[in-house]
Design a protein that fits this description.
The complex is a heterodimer of chains A (168) and B (304). Chain A is built from 2 helices and no strands. Chain A has helices spanning 11-143, 149-167. In chain A, helix 1 (11-143) packs across helix 2 (149-167). The N and C termini of chain A lie far apart (169 Å). Chain B is mainly α. In chain B, 72% of the residues lie in helices and 3% in strands. Chain B contains 10 helices and 2 strands, in the order αββααααααααα. In chain B, a hairpin with a 6-residue loop joins strand 1 (46-50) and strand 2 (57-60). The relative contact order of chain B is 0.10. Classes of the chains: A mainly alpha (168), B mainly alpha (304). Chains A and B meet through helix 1 of A and strand 2, helix 2, helix 3, helix 4 and helix 5 of B.
Chain lengths: 168, 304
């Protein structure tokens, strides 16, 4: 079988080889670069989307955080205000209760005093009566005679009035 | 499960498509190669000759092998891109992406943004050249050691260089030969023509010289073995022991390293020549001029 010379130029072979290179170029472009590039782009898109969503999530979280911090601050203020209000109402309530208690105590005291005074006057009256009776009996026994009761009473009354006046 | 087995079946088909053409070439070579005696350095085997106009076209080993390489590359591409997913789980996808990214990076750094479309072309040059040279590992005739094959690529590259130089307009193109001084024009023309010639000869010469040196060394080792160990009795004396091992190490350099290096050099030179010859400023000026003319025209029409 024949062989080619080591250095031989053939126009057709050159053209065929040129066409082969072009063919390989097209093959690589269509069957390797295009699908791989498509996949890379797709992945890039996915990664971008992930990053975007992550950023969105971070932004949302930050916004939430700010919101909650604000709300927390508001809650603190509100709690303070409520505590203060509760304090004031409680204090007012307490004051009122104390005042009530005071007035009631005063009332009781006053009534007691009044009762005591009434008792006193009653007792005075009873004692007077007693004294009147006792002295009348004493006088009857001492004098041993009929004394006009009316006169007698008048006399003792005057006398006791004198004592009462001295007592007071 | 059915889906998976179908996937594997397609994989096997694609791999077979990539390997079978090369195996067929080997079988063809074994069946047709004449027995060689001693040192013989010849070009590619001619299988048959087609009567084409201008010049008869001999269909040689180089032709058949390069077609086999084209088919193999087609199926390798199909195999690599079979089962691409957004989240890669196949090793081959990682490799495919690595190749694509590497080529694009290389084109971007060497040629710039304007020539990004060249990435597949550069990959094609590298793949075709490297695989063609590596065919010698299979005992096949590497198509790159046939000058016509490499010359075809160089001429295509030259066409591209000229095409991009022409973008600044024919006058600008002719003017570029008279730079920096007009009387250097012949030198410029020679250097312009020398570009594809030197590219073709560099590649072809490197691969061919590798084969020649391998053959010479193998022959020399045979002779040396005969000389040194010839005293051994019987068949031991005839057996070329020194041929064991040493040619393999040389093959590592001449077949693998040199082949890959030449592919890389050819691709790099292509990028350099195309982007280096592109007169970016002149093209920009020309486009600006055209735009101005267009605007003037529309302004005139508006006046009318």
């Amino acid at each position: 079988m024949q062989t080619l010379e080591i250095i031989s130029v053939n126009l057709w072979q050159i053209l065929i080889s040129l066409a082969n290179l072009l063919l390989i170029f097209l093959i690589l472009k269509k069957f390797l670069f295009k699908p791989v590039q498509k996949m890379l782009d797709k992945r890039q898109g996915e990664v971008d989307a992930q990053y975007a969503s992550a950023q969105q999530a971070a932004a949302d979280a930050a916004a939430d955080k700010a919101l909650w911090a604000e709300k927390l601050q508001g809650a603190d203020d509100e709690a303070d205000a409520r505590l203060k209000a509760a304090d004031t109402t409680a204090r007012a309530h307490g004051d009122r209760i104390v005042a009530d208690a005071k007035t009631r105590a005063e009332e009781i005291l006053r009534r007691a005093e009044a009762d005591a005074a009434l008792e006193k006057t009653k007792a005075e009256a009873a004692i007077k009566e007693e004294i009147v009776v006792v002295s009348t009996e004493l006088a009857q026994k001492m004098l041993e005679r009929e004394v006009n009761a009316a006169d007698h009473k008048q006399l003792i009354d005057a006398f006791l009035g004198e004592i009462g006046g001295a007592d007071e | 499960m059915n889906k998976k087995s179908r996937f594997v079946a397609v994989d096997i088909l694609l791999l077979a498509g990539a390997i079978l053409p090369l195996v067929a070439c080997m079988v063809l070579k074994i069946l047709t190669a004449p027995p060689t005696e001693g040192i013989e350095i010849t070009g590619a085997l001619i299988y048959f000759t087609l009567p084409t106009p201008l010049q008869p076209l001999p269909i040689t080993e180089a032709q058949v092998n390069s077609v086999a390489v084209v088919i193999a590359i087609l199926f390798i591409c199909l195999y690599f891109t079979h089962g691409l997913t957004v989240r890669p789980h196949l090793k081959r996808q990682v490799i495919a992406e690595w190749i694509v990214e590497k080529c694009k990076n290389m084109v971007h750094t060497n040629m710039g943004e304007r020539f990004m479309g060249f990435a597949p072309f550069i990959a094609a040059i590298m793949g075709l050249s490297a695989l063609s040279s590596l065919l010698s590992l299979l005992g096949l005739f590497p198509p790159t050691s046939d000058m016509n094959i490499v010359a075809g690529w160089a001429i295509l590259v030259f066409t591209l260089i000229t095409f991009y130089k022409f973008k600044a307009g024919p006058i600008q193109y002719l003017k570029s030969y008279a730079e920096p001084v007009p009387f250097l024009a012949p030198m410029n023309i020679i250097s312009e023509i020398a570009t594809p010639v030197s590219m073709a000869f560099r590649h072809y010469g490197n691969i061919l010289s590798g084969s020649i040196i391998s053959v010479l060394i193998a022959a020399a080792l045979g002779g040396l073995s005969n000389l040194v160990l010839g005293w051994l009795p019987g068949i031991l004396g005839e057996f070329p022991f020194l041929r064991i091992g040493i040619p393999a190490v040389l093959s590592l350099y001449f077949d693998i390293f040199s082949g890959l290096l030449q592919a890389f050099i050819f691709a790099t030179l292509t990028m350099m020549y195309i982007s280096g010859g592109y007169p970016a400023e002149a093209v920009a000026k020309r486009l600006a001029r055209r735009e101005a003319k267009k605007q003037a025209k529309t302004a005139k029409q508006a006046e009318k």
